[in-house]
């Protein structure tokens, strides 16, 4: 099961995590992570699923049965809340957002979205960004 260990280590390092960090996140010992990475021990099926979910990859990828590290971006688990894909824009569509337990109104969330669009527009000068995304945001703001 050496491929599992290699992929686990690679995924952990990509997230700039130490073994201790990963162990704490998934609720096991640091030594267990080390043994998985060295191929000295295999995780249970339940733990394998937890590891796959944490890294947002399939168990088949971890086991070496697939070389596709993640699910296609247009697929999402039904149980995933908006924004689980890491996209702040999607996250801000959630109805249960709060700031220190103070609920945020639609108007306040709209202000946050507009602020982020300004930030993205300014940063796009330094990164290669598809200009269509910015044009769509501008059209939405004019309507809104």
UniProtKB/TrEMBL annotation:
CDD domains: HTH_XRE (cd00093). The keyword DNA-binding applies. It holds the Pfam family HTH_3. Residues 8-62 form the HTH cro/C1-type domain. Keywords: DNA-binding. Coiled coil: none annotated. GO terms for molecular function: DNA binding. Gene3D superfamilies: lambda repressor-like DNA-binding domains. The keyword Flavoprotein does not apply. SUPFAM superfamilies: lambda repressor-like DNA-binding domains. It comes from the Bacteria. This is DNA-binding transcriptional regulator, XRE-family HTH domain.
